[in-house]
C-alpha cells in the first residue's frame, strides 16, 4: 500500500488542532508556534501532493479507498483531480498567513481584569487548524457522503471563530459588539445549516436512486459516474433536476450567490480580519468547487437545464455586489460585498461551460483567495491600529504609514483586476469564456470591472489620501510580522499574474474532463466555423 | 537584436521595482537611477532604430516571443513583441521625451521629499507605455494599456494629501476603465471571430473578411474607438484630462500631452486593417475626432489656469490625430506625424508652463502672470517656439503636420470631406486664438503678480539648467521635426509599409488649403491680440458670454456626469443598500422570527423540573405501548 | 407456580418505582425509585427467559445490572456534588437546565 498522502495532509492539521488545544493555558506563545508549525507541515504535504500530481495522468490521483460502513455503502474515498489539488494547496498556503496575521487577535485584552473570561488563544488557533482539516478533506473526498460530512462539520469551528473571537474594533461598545457578533455567527450557521440539510436530503435521494437501480446503493463518485457511463444507471430527468437543486442550493448558500448572500457581510464584518479571510478565501471556495465537481459531474443534464437561471443570478451577484460595495461605510463589509461580486464571476465562469470559463473560474478561486487575503489582512492591520472599521474614521494614512498604504493599494489593485496581478488573468478568462457562448452576458459582466475600480479607489481615496485625520497621526507602519504576511502574498500575486502557466497546466486537463462530462465543447471561432 | 526589445521594456521596469521597494536608503540616488534607466532604454531604442534603418523597407519588422502567458484551450495569450516602424516611432518618442522629462524632473521635484517614488512611478509609466507599443497582440497591449492607466493614476494623485489630486486621479482611472471595457470587449470579439487576438492573425483576416463578418468587424471597430476615447480623452470620455492637471507638471507633459494620451491614436492606426474594413466605424472615428478638436479648442479658450488651457489644447490636437486616423490610409501617416511633432511642442509647452509655475510660487492662474518674458528669457523663447509650432506657423513642425491633416480631411471627399475640412480649419483658427491668449497673458502685458496664500511675493526667475536644457531640446524638435519629416515625404515612406498610404484626390488644391489655413491663423492671432494684447488683461475674470461660461465649466459635461452618473449612482447604491437590508435580508429574518415565535411557545414545556420530564416520558411510553397493542389487535 | 405472578410482581414494583420518581422530591429517593424500576425490569426479563426457555433474558438482566451500577456511580456523584453546593437534595431546586 502506498503512502496515504491525502489522508496525512488532512490529518496533520487535525492532530495539530488537538495538540494546540492541549497546550497549557499559560503558554500562549507555545500554542501559537505549535499551530503555525502544524500548518506549515500541512503546507509541505500539500506541496508534495501538488508536485506528485501528474496533469496528464488519470483524472483522480493519489486515491485512497476503504470501506467504512458496508451496510450503507459508505466509503472512505479520497482522490484529487487538478482542480482539487490546487484548492488544497491554496488552503494550505493561506492558513499560515491567516495565523500570522491573527497572531495577537486572541490574546487577552491588556486591560482585562483577571476574573473576566478572555479569549483563549489555544482555542483560536486550534479552531483554525480544525477548519483547515475539514476544508482539505472536503476538497479531497470523492465519496458524496464523506464530502457532505466535512462540508457540514466545518460550520461548527467557523461558528465559534465568528462568535467567540469577534472584531475588537467596534464603535458601539463591548455589549453591542457581542450582540452583533452572536447575531452574525448564528446567521452564518442557520443559513449554511439550512443549505446543508437540503443537500442531505438530495444525498439520500441519490443513494436511493443508486440502490434502486444498481442493487447496492453507493455514494462513491467514481462508481456513480462509471455506472452512468456504462448505461447501468439512468436517473430520470425530473429526479435529476430535484437532486441538482438540492445540491446546488447548499453550494449557492456557501458560495454565496445572490440572493443567498446576506450572511457573508455580517460574518465578515463582525469577525476578525484573519477569520474573515478564512471564511471568504477558504471556506466559501468549497461551495464553488463543489458546484464544479458535484453539480456538473453528477447531474450534467440538470446543470444545463439550470444554466440560464444560474447565469442570470451570477450576473446579478456581480453587479449587485459591486454596487453595494460602493455604498458601504464599513471597510470589511465593503470587501465582503466585493467578494459577493467576485463569487458571481466564479459561478458565471463555471456555468458558461467553456474551457476558458471553467479554467478561469478555477484560477479565479485561487487568485481571489490570495488577493482577498492580501487586501483584507492589510485592512485588518489598519483597523486594529485605529480601533474602528468605519471608512469615515480614516484619512491621510499614506502620509503616516506609506508602506501600509502601498500594500493596501496593491491588494486593492489586485481586487480590481489590474493586468500584471493574478486576478486579471482569471477575470479575463471568465469574461472571454462567457462571451464566447453568451455575448450579451459577457458584455454586462464587463461592467463589473468599472464598478470594481470605483469601490476600490473610493475606499483607497477616503482612507489613505487627503489630509491626515484626527486619530491617524501616530499610526505606525507595518511591523516585521505584518510584512512577513503581506510580502509573500504580493509576490505570489505578481508571479501568478505574469506566469500563471504552472497552475493552468494542472487545471486545464481536469476542466476538460468536466466539460466532457456535460457534453459541451467550446464554440468555434466564427470564421473558422464557416470554413 | 530581438532580446533588446525585451530589455527596452525591462530597463525602466527594473527601475520602478528598485525605486519603489528600495526604501529610504535610495532617496539620495533614486532620481539618478531612474533617469539613467530611462536613458538606457532610449539607447536600446536608438540601437534598434539604427539596426532597423539598415534593412530593406519591407523587412524591418522584428518579432520576439518570450513565453506563453495564458494558455487555456483555444485562448493562447503570448508575451511577444513586434517592433515595426510604427512601434519604433513610438519607442523613440516615448524614451526620448521620457528621458528629457526625467532630467527636467530632477530639478522640478528637487524639494519634494518623495522624489524617489516619483521617479519610480515615472519609470513604471515608461515600462507600461513601451509594453503597449511593442506588444504583438491585443491582450498584451491591454496589459500595457492598463499599466499606463495605473501609472497615470499614481502620478496624477502624487500629491495625495491634496483631496483634489486624489479625486482627479480616481476620476482619471475610472473614466479610463470605461474605455477599457471597449478594449476588452474588442478582444473578446476578436477571439470569438478570428480565434486569436495577435496582430498577425487578426489584421490580415480582418482585411479578407467577407461581408457576412461585416457587422462583427464594425463592432470591433466601435469597441476600439471606445477604448481610444477613454485613453485619449476624446468626447464623450474627455472629462478626466482637465482634472488630471492636478499632477506635477512633468507628468502632464509626459503622460497627458506627449505619450499616454496618444495611445488611442496608436490603437486606431495599429488596427487600421479593421477600420478599413468597417466604414461605419471610421465615420464614428472621424466624428469623434472632429467634435473633440472643436470641443477641446473651445474649452482651451476660456481657461485661466495655464495647465488646463494646455490640456484643452491637448484634447483638441489629439482630436486632429484621431480624425486623421479615421480617414483611413490617407490619414494614418499624418496622424502619427502630428502625434510626434505634437509630442515635441506640447511637451515643450508644458515644461515651459512648469518652469513658469516654478518661478511663480506654483501659481497657475494666467491672470496673475504677465510680462514674464524679461524674467525668464529661456522659458520665453522655448515656449514661444512651441507656441509658433502649435499654431502652425509656416516652416515649423505644426505647420507641416497639421496642414497635411486638413488636406487629408478635404480629400475624404463628398459632404463629409467638406464638413471635416471646415471643422479642421475652424479648429486651426481657434488654436491660434487660445494659444496667442496664453502667450500674451503669460509673457506680455503688465505684471499682475500677486502674493500666494502664505503671503510670499513671487520673484520670477529662470529655472535651473536641468530644467531648461530639456526645454531647449524639445524646442529644437518643435522647430525642425516637421520639416525634417516632410522633405522627400520621408515620414510617409518610413511608415507606409506598416500603415499603408494613399494620396486622396482633394477637391481643392493643396495650395488653397495652405492658404486657407494661413488666413485662419492670422484671424485667430488677430482676434486674440485685439482682446488680450491691445488692452490690459483684468486680474479677475469677467463674467463673460454664455459660451465662455460654458467653456469654463468644460461645456457642462462634468455637470452632466455629476448629475446623471454620480448622483444617480449614489441614489442607486443607497437604495440598494437599504433594499439588501430590508428586503433580501428581511425575508430570511422574517422566517427566522416566526420560527423563533413558535419555539418560544414550545419552550414553556421545558420547565426544568425533572418530574415533568419524567411524566412526559412515561406518558409517551404509555402511548407507544398502547399504539403497539392496538396495532396488534387490529 | 404460575410465572405470570412474577410478571404481576414486576409490574407492581415498576409502578411503585414510577410513582416514586414522579412524586418524591428528594433526589436520593428518586434515585432509589429508578433502581426499583430497573430491578422490576430485571425480574420481568428473567421471567421471560424462563418462559421462553432461552438465556437471552438473563443476559440482558446482567447487562441492566452493569448499566445500573455505572449509573449509580455517576448519578450519586452528581447528587452529592449538588447537595454540597446547594445544601439541598430536592430535585425541584435543580431546575437550571431550562432555557
Automatic annotation (TrEMBL), chain A:
Keywords from the named record: Membrane, Transmembrane, Transmembrane helix
Ranges of residues in domain NADH:quinone oxidoreductase/Mrp antiporter transmembrane: 141-450
GO molecular function: NADH dehydrogenase (ubiquinone) activity; NADH dehydrogenase activity; ubiquinone binding
Keyword Transmembrane helix: yes
Membrane-spanning ranges: 6-26, 33-53, 82-103, 123-139, 145-167, 188-209, 242-260, 272-293, 305-327, 334-355, 361-383, 403-426, 438-460, 480-499
GO biological process: ATP synthesis coupled electron transport; electron transport coupled proton transport
Membrane topology field: Multi-pass membrane protein
InterPro entries: NADH_Q_OxRdtase_chainM/4, NADH_UbQ_OxRdtase, ND/Mrp_TM
The family this protein is said to belong to: Belongs to the complex I subunit 4 family.
GO CC annotation, single: membrane
Pfam families found in the cross-reference section: Proton_antipo_M
Natural source organism: Actinacidiphila cocklensis
Name of the protein in its database record: NADH-quinone oxidoreductase subunit M
Chief place of localization: membrane
Protein location: Endomembrane system; Membrane
UniProtKB/TrEMBL annotation, chain B:
Membrane topology per record: Multi-pass membrane protein
A GO molecular-function descriptor: NADH dehydrogenase (ubiquinone) activity
Domain called NADH-Ubiquinone oxidoreductase (complex I) chain 5 N-terminal: residue spans: 69-119
Keywords for this protein: Membrane, Transmembrane, Transmembrane helix
InterPro entries noted in UniProt: NADHpl_OxRdtase_5_subgr, ND/Mrp_TM, NU5C-like, Proton_antipo_N
UniProt keyword Membrane, yes or no: yes
Protein name: NADH-quinone oxidoreductase subunit L
Organism of derivation: Actinacidiphila cocklensis
Record lineage: Bacteria, Bacillati, Actinomycetota, Actinomycetes, Kitasatosporales
From TrEMBL, chain C:
Pfam name, any one: Oxidored_q2
GO molecular function: NADH dehydrogenase (quinone) (non-electrogenic) activity; quinone binding
Gene3D superfamilies membership: 1.10.287.3510
Nucleotide-binding as UniProt keyword: no
Key words, A-Z: Cell membrane, Membrane, NAD, Quinone, Translocase, Transmembrane, Transmembrane helix, Transport
Membrane topology: Multi-pass membrane protein
GO terms for cellular component: NADH dehydrogenase complex; plasma membrane
Superkingdom classification of source: Bacteria
Cited InterPro entries: NADH_UbQ_OxRdtase_chain4L/K, NUOK/Mnh_C1-like
Example of a GO biological process term: ATP synthesis coupled electron transport
Broad enzyme group: translocase
Keyword Kinase belongs to the record: no
EC number: 7.1.1.-
Transmembrane parts of this sequence: 6-23, 28-48, 60-83
Quaternary data: NDH-1 is composed of 14 different subunits. Subunits NuoA, H, J, K, L, M, N constitute the membrane sector of the complex.
Family per record: Belongs to the complex I subunit 4L family.
PANTHER family: NADH DEHYDROGENASE SUBUNIT 4L-RELATED, NADH-UBIQUINONE OXIDOREDUCTASE SUBUNIT ND4L
Protein name: NADH-quinone oxidoreductase subunit K
Organism: Actinacidiphila cocklensis
Gene this protein is translated from: nuoK
